Amino acid sequence: MRLALLGPPGAGKGTQAIRIAHRMKIAHLSSGDILRSEKSAGTPLGLKIRDFIDRGKLVPDDLMIRVMEDRVARIHGGFVLDGFPRTLVQAADLAGFLDSIHKPLDLVVNFVLDENVLSRRFEGRRVCPVCGSVYHLDTMPPEVPGLCDQDGQALVTRPDDQPDVVRERIKTYRLSVEPLVDFYKKREILVTLDAAGAPNDVTAAVVDLIRGNAGKKR
Ligand SMILES: [Zn+2]
User: Fold this and answer.
1) Of 1, 65, 157, 168, which cross-links 78 as Cys (Cβ 3.0–4.6 Å)?
2) pTM for this structure?
3) What pLDDT is attached to residue 149?
4) Residue 30: which CATH number?
5) Is residue 45 part of a domain?
């Protein structure tokens, strides 16, 4: 089983990728983890990557593609891609590469979340400016409202989690994911899944999808 996950930040995609990999006994290929490990290994590729990350820039498509395809090529069984592909150029190149080694993706799961639910996941988040502990007003509130459990510091909202910034982030994501959704729809491997449920339920739904999909092919 070879699959990729699409979904907005805040939808729990990274958590789901880890759980799905564990349940299905396949490799978890997180672009974030892989970039970090290349970066710290200090390889020529890693140095290039570090250059972009340190300047706060996105790693360009060609570099991202090289790193991820190299990693995919070394996997013998199934895998779940998390955080890659993120652009149409990446998706198209990956598809060509996987076709050439006769290992096309079986399934792309597109996590969707109601915009208000998604906004609330960010807007309810509070962090401690001193120890970095993260809280959520709805799901993980501090014992004393507004104060860190560890050190009693006043909790703050990160600039990225302010309502207008969140709306802009969600809009940017929508625009960037649309071409990918169309691309995988045309290849008839896209499934859309509501990610609003409890993490356990979402994992179970994905596993059902994977098994149902494998069943169809038999
Ligand atoms: Zn603290």
Assistant:
1) 1
2) 0.84
3) 97
4) 3.40.50.300
5) yes
